[in-house]
Amino acid sequence: MDIGKAIYYLRKQKGLKQYEFAKICDISPTSLSLIENCERNPSARTVKKISDYFEIPVPLIHLLALEESDVPESKKEIYKIIYPSIKMFALQLLEPGNEAVEAVEQLMEF
Known about the structure:
By secondary structure, the protein is mostly helical. The protein has helices at about 5-15, 20-25, 30-35, 45-55, 60-65, 75-95, 100-110. Helix 2 crosses helix 3.
């Protein structure tokens, strides 16, 4: 799982500089750099601040961070088939004004 890449993608999509986003996350720019370069894992508190800022559920960040190497060998074929569609849907949820986020949050509670 490469959560740093997912966080980097989210930040870039918003057009934020690293120091700006670090301030939003209440961490140092150095910490954010280490996270985005996969040299440090973010705390649960930091991931929650990111999800709050983007108004998305925390599991969506983890979904974006999922990599093929995270999937057991016996499940890789199905992963290769369905993950691109799931990821595309997740990225659409990040678009401003998309009301599908509420539906996803309700599903996550189920």
